[in-house]
């Protein structure tokens, strides 16, 4: 993952060479209080709710390619995305990384440990606003990374495709419909046949900093749910942020056939013709390993 996760020192070197566009996915309010020098703010990476219909995907592509163009991403500079820490904004920095990969951007990474790691390494903050020169974004959609609602529906009867739900426990159990509120989405439950590993489980958390576990530990955790590196896996959460965090974790452990259902539960639950399971799963017990 050396080409995905950037240490604070590696980020400083990129900035020194003038080769970085640093994207802060936190709220406008938090960004205004202080951010890494040179960073631009794009909270839409976290807040955007995607639809995976043809028109919905076209809207997603247009919106983010336009935003990234405004911030100077022309294909020659490395985009490095960060949040406060890898576990504090539901994986928003990983969502930004994944969106850029989906749009075909050639150079993109994540600040390992987020803003907290930057501060712990002696990094400074500023309130100054950077205004990059707009450019032409090199759009080249990587379709293989995206699972649509219809792809997921087809997977329900295809045993060669595995569904991984990595939402918080209350959502998996059908006690809440979303992180936005118990009844934010119209239905509670999970997609039939999915297995569950809560997204926090792929990380170690210490002193309020989160880091991904080792590839060996990630593979061992996935194996408890019969998930292996050669499997065709679709990951979903509520809107594709936590799923992106898990995508990065699994990719770091050698999983190569990964897709994110970007619409996730927000989309699935709003279509009455999409089946759900609610209550306790019939054939499994919710699983969460010890945090460490």
Automatic annotation (TrEMBL):
SMART domains: RHOD (SM00450)
Entry keywords, A to Z: Repeat, Transferase
Matching PROSITE patterns: RHODANESE_3
Domain Rhodanese: 16-127, 157-277
UniProt key word Transferase: yes
Taxonomic superkingdom: Bacteria
InterPro entries: Rhodanese-like_dom (IPR001763), Rhodanese-like_dom_sf (IPR036873), Thiosulfate_sulfurtransferase (IPR051126)
Keyword Ion transport: no
Any one Gene Ontology molecular-function term assigned to this protein's record: transferase activity
Protein name per the record: Thiosulfate sulfurtransferase
Organism annotation: Acetobacter pomorum DM001
